[in-house]
Amino acid sequence: MTKFEKSGGNVFRDLGFANADEMLAKAELARQIGKLIKRQGLSQEQAAVLLKVDQPKVSALVNGRLTAFSIERLLRFLKALGQDISIVVKPKPRSRSALIKVAAE
Question: Which CATH architecture best describes the domain 17-105?
């Protein structure tokens, strides 16, 4: 019989990573970038030119290898892909620790 555990909403936290919120935010930003590259019909080479990186970096990005990418760099990529970015800062509820959340329209 296979045993399952319910996620707390952040797989990186579930796995015990200390920087789980940042890792989830980077993963969500990268997912949006990948969707935009696909939606705009860009090849990895074309995306590389637009994002001002080499093609292997685009490959790493769309395949979830994100250690070479900061949140700031991912935000610059979104801008290069023609996206508006909004950052909302608000008080956290007392019932949980502070978090970083990425939401897309």
Answer: Orthogonal Bundle (1.10)
